[in-house]
Write a structure and sequence with these properties.
The chain is α+β, with helices and mostly antiparallel strands. Helix content is about 45%, strand content about 10%.
Amino acid sequence: MGVLLGLLGSPAMAQTSPPEYLADPGFESDLPPETDFIAGPKYAQMVRQILEGGVPEGFNFTVFRSFYVRTRDYTPLAEDLITRMRDQAFVIEEGRDRAKALEARQAYEALLRSHLANLDVVTQALSLSRQDPVFGDPQMLSAVREGLIRSVTANGNGRSLVAAYRVITPAEEDALLSALDFEVMHTTSDKTGGVYYNMHYGVFRATGEPFTLFVNIEAPVRHLERERIRAGRRLDLRSR
């Protein structure tokens, strides 16, 4: 399997504290999504908050991402989602069949709601919205995208496994490396103490400083491992 986890990043910024009623449940849960009855409603609540009034001041994107990971819709690899979005956008823009266009628009909006914490999906929606506002508010989607990346860059320092940056999709890891202006020379993927992680060996382009950057990929790998076990195949991090 290739390096798990290409988007342009933004500078790291401190994450504000979440409202008291939104306790961070953590990125990993021992419960499979279908039995986690807390994350789904909490995630939906935060999505409604964004869609109805934009990203509020102090919105905690780390909590938002952690709830998304624990929903049954969580999808770390977004290729199929992006294909569906583009297909739906084509039907909507073509508009020859009003009934099909309406159906496609409803499906597009439902997909966006279900995956508003997925960086790939938000980036695709932002691109489409800049062409036609029927696909979303570009200002809102830009704020969501920036918030997701800011959450990734603010949740660690990458100096050790304990202080590793935590990502939930491959796009987040790409955005992190871009935001840090870090050039990867070699990557090792492994599991230690039950934690999946990438070790990126490389340099910071601005200074030329060599560095080993730790990235926690526990959430996406555990999800993919569950899916592959269900399919009768176990995930091998070392296969390339």
